[in-house]
């Protein structure tokens, strides 16, 4: 299993609109093979980012999602907030789950190579 953590720095004036975007999301990811869960974590401390946390049965499942038409459709509204809504670039992290106390029989995700969200030179 893996998690993805997308850290998104949102200006406080846009926090409610940002959260509403997630409440009304397309939900296409929910139907993807290997998808387990999606959480939006609101920061408690000023200046900390929101975290969009997803859990996947495997890295292969996540990579299939990123390469899918459903991903493109699901992210079509990503640009609906103005640039000033964001105080810093977002950062995507992948983590391999090697231990989950709620699933003691879970086999650790094999160690993988670094993930690149975009090809060299893409934005």
The amount of helix comes to 10-25%
**Architecture (CATH level 2) name:** 2-Layer Sandwich
Class from secondary-structure proportions: alpha+beta
Instruction: State mean pLDDT (0 to 100 scale).
Output: 89
Tell me what portion of residues adopts beta-strand conformation: 15-25%
The neighbouring-strand order within the major sheet is 2-3-1-4
- The tally of helices reads 3
**From N to C, what is the helix and strand string?**
EHEEHHE
* Rg (CA only): 15 Å
The structural domain count equals: 1
Can you put this structure into words, describing what you see?
By secondary structure, the protein is α+β, with helices and mostly antiparallel strands. It has one domain (2-96): Alpha-Beta Plaits (2-Layer Sandwich), CATH 3.30.70.100. The chain contains 3 helices and 4 strands, in the order E-H-E-E-H-H-E. It has a 4-stranded antiparallel sheet. The protein is globular.
Descriptive tags:
single chain; 123 residues; alpha+beta; Alpha-Beta Plaits; four-stranded antiparallel β-sheet; 3 helices; 19% helix; 22% strand
What topology does this entry show?
Blueprint: E1 2-8, H1 15-23, E2 35-41, E3 50-56, H2 59-66, H3 69-74, E4 91-96
Antiparallel strand pairs: 1-3, 1-4, 2-3
Q: How would you briefly describe this protein structure?
A:
With 123 residues, this protein is an alpha+beta fold. It has helices at 15-23, 59-66, 69-74, and strands at residues 2-8, 35-41, 50-56, 91-96. It has a single domain (2-96), classed as Alpha-Beta Plaits (2-Layer Sandwich), CATH 3.30.70.
């Amino acid at each position: 299993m893996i998690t993805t953590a997308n850290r998104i720095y949102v200006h406080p004036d846009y926090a409610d609109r940002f959260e509403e975007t997630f409440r009304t999301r397309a939900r296409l990811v929910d139907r993807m093979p290997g998808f387990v869960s999606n959480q939006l974590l609101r920061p408690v401390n000023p200046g900390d980012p929101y975290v969009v946390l997803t859990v996947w049965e495997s890295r292969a499942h996540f990579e299939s999602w990123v390469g899918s038409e459903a991903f493109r459709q699901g992210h079509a509204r990503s640009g609906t907030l103005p640039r000033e809504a964001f105080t810093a670039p977002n950062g995507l992290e992948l983590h391999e789950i090697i231990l989950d106390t709620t699933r003691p029989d879970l086999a650790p995700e094999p160690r993988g190579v670094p993930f690149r969200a975009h090809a060299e030179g893409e934005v």
